[in-house]
Amino acid sequence: MDKITSIRGFKDILPGETEKWAFVEEKAREIFTNFGIREIKIPILEKTELFTRGIGEATDIVEKEMYTFRDRGNEYLTLRPEATASVIRAYLEHNMHESEPLTKLFTIGPMFRRERPQKGRFRQFHQINVEMIGQKDPRVDAELMLMLVEFLSAVGLSNLKLEINSLGCPRCRPAFRETVISFLRGKENGLCPDCRRRLKTNPLRIFDCKVETCREIISLAPVILDFLCDECKEHFEKVKEYLTIFGISFEINTKMVRGLDYYTQTAFEVITESLGAQNAVAGGGRYDGLSKELGGEDFPGIGFAIGFERLISMMPMKKEDFVKHPRLFIAALGEDAQKFAFTLTNKLRMAGIRTEMDLSDKSLKSQMKRSNKLSCTYTLIVGQKELEENKAELRNMEEGTQETLELDNIIEKIETRIKGLVP
Ligand code: HAM
Question: Which of 319, 345, 362 is the last residue of a domain?
Fold first, then answer.
């Protein structure tokens, strides 16, 4: 029979990698907690309408990348392509605004987009997502970016560039949109078929196009920052001011529009040269109109998402740095010793000591080899003779020294020796 394999663009994350993931999650939880951000867990499946309305009908995600299907009750459902729309839905559904003026939430989990898989791009990928909802204060924008930069450097990432832009608001953006349309008039033939279509449906998306000819044309287009209304201008100035106070270096990228339609004012990305074409490790921005779009009151918000796989691929630490080796290997020879070792192994594990043994009745030599391979700190050697004498040999694998221990209170004796070692 044919072997069943995983789906294209869906990846297993194996032991060796998962330890890195756990480390990153732990760091995220620690830093986010310091910033007063609490965890929310949201469903992976939502009503399709949440995303068509939230992200925007004329975006790549909604037009061609969503995993949408009708369930057995004939309802249109979608595997979430991102988390922001869901977080806002939950915020509104549970009236979270009632408990605090600024609700700060994070969520970590898988997202699904049917994109063309390539380096750094998958169909199931993971995001670390943070949202701050309820206040439209530029200090919130700066705090969020400060925390993002802090977190990325805490997990060892370097050579990052923070790019920022302002996308204006429903008052100032329409004039910009019209100017872009006029600018592109007569240049349609130079645009790719997608952008020719975008010109009618969502012209600002053309700024995001990766096709060289489109990029050349759009590079000469007017820039949104020249069209900002006074309020948007002031907000952007304040954001830059606070970033500067924190000593965060940033660059203004007037061409950045982001791939989702809900953004207003501040937009940002953290990019790196080391990822190739998929160069954004994180992206986010303000989305003051989203909660209204989803049928709620007018709650401003801002957030970001980090691409977990991309972050992991950029970490300088090696797999080995994260593996927790067993402390002790019990090499047992003979039936009685094996029985004793099996009980002791599990008692030690219950006492919090990482312990391994061999279940296949191998020679002492091969058991020692296994202990070495697992990088155990100690090996406890027990044979029939030792057992009869109520003794065992404890070998320090790093120093090559050996001592004889009485088996009474053996757990405490091992605990004492392990105490003080790096966890
Ligand atoms: P996004 O820019 O679509 O924003 O995605 C954020 C990050 O997720 C990207 O910068 C990238 O690192 C990662 N990512 C996206 N697609 C893929 C993929 N196919 N494979 C691997 N990694 C990927 C959002 O999703 C917004 N919800 C962010 C946000 C939160 N804005 C406000 N709050």
Answer: 319
Tell me if 126 CB under 6 Å of ligand 1.
no
How far is the C-alpha of 50 from the C-alpha of 310, rounded, in Å? Answer: 27
**Statement to judge: residues 236 and 99 lie in one domain:** yes
Distance from residue 233's CA to the centre of ligand 1 (Å): 26
Same domain membership, residue 303 and residue 232:
yes
CA–CA separation, 118 vs 274, rounded Å?
15
Contact indicator for 242, 176 with CB cutoff of 8 Å: no
313 within some domain: yes
For 365, phi then psi, to 5°, come to -60, -45
DSSP alpha helix (H) spans, 295-354: 308-314, 335-350
Cβ–Cβ < 8 Å for 183, 195: no
Domain assignment of residue 400, given as a range: 325-415
Residue position matching structure tokens 């070495």: 372
For ligand 1, the distance from its centroid to the CA atom of residue 127, given in whole angstroms, is 7
Do residues 388 and 409 both lie within one domain? yes
Does residue 125 line the site of ligand 1, with CB under 6 A? Answer: yes
Does the pTM surpass 0.85? The reply is yes
Q: What pLDDT score was predicted for residue 320?
A: 83
Boundary (domain end) residue, out of 304, 319, 334? 319
Distances (CA, A) of 357 to 325, 342, 343, 411: 13, 8, 11, 15
Half-sphere exposure of 374 (CA within 13 A, CB side): 23
d(CA 266, CA 252): 11
Determine if residue 326 is left, alpha or beta; phi over 0 gives left, psi from -120 to 50 gives alpha, anything else beta: beta
Q: Which residues contact 41 (CB under 8 A, 6 or more apart)?
A: 107, 109
pLDDT tens per residue, range 199-228: 999 999 999 898 999 999 999 999 999 999
Tens-place pLDDT, residues 266-275: 999 999 877 7
